[in-house]
């Protein structure tokens, strides 16, 4: 995927198993993690996504068009992008998460009285870099960080 897919695509979607396999096979960050223990840690996921874009994403010196990764798990979605290539990312990740939820629940309208938020209400944005701690507001469930 690193050598045959990333150079050809501008956007890719990965779930938690695919992301973990990618970092393990390419000796990326957290490659020693054998499996997720429940809901994937947001900081770990963010570290891996940042590494993929830093090492394999589009730059002036690299023959790659990859500028966007949509990570999705049952609990949350993360959209990681290279600056300057994608507009309205907050709406895009919200729409993707809503569509996935509607598909998973087999309904076009999600009854909020029958669902609950599985995303962590507090998380750090990295386990490697200087992290920011973010508190999630369920009434505004899309957060943004650099």
UniProtKB/TrEMBL annotation:
GO terms for cellular component: endoplasmic reticulum. One of its GO terms (biological process) is glycolytic process. Pfam families: ADP_PFK_GK. Keywords: Glycolysis, Kinase, Magnesium, Metal-binding, Transferase. GO terms for molecular function: ADP-specific glucokinase activity; metal ion binding. This is ADP-dependent glucokinase. It comes from Cairina moschata (Muscovy duck).
């Amino acid at each position: 995927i690193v050598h045959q897919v990333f150079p050809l695509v501008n956007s890719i979607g990965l779930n938690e198993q695919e992301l973990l396999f990618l970092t393990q096979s390419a000796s990326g960050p957290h490659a020693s993690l054998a499996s997720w223990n429940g809901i994937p840690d947001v900081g770990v996921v963010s570290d891996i996504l940042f590494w993929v874009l830093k090492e394999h994403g589009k730059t002036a010196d690299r023959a790659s068009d990859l500028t966007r990764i949509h990570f999705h798990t049952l609990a949350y979605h993360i959209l990681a992008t290279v600056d300057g290539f994608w507009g309205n990312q907050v709406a895009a990740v919200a729409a993707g998460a809503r569509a996935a939820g509607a598909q998973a629940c087999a309904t076009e309208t999600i009854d909020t009285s029958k669902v609950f938020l599985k995303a962590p209400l507090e998380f750090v944005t990295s386990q490697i870099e200087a992290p920011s701690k973010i508190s999630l507001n369920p009434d505004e469930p899309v957060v943004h960080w650099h």
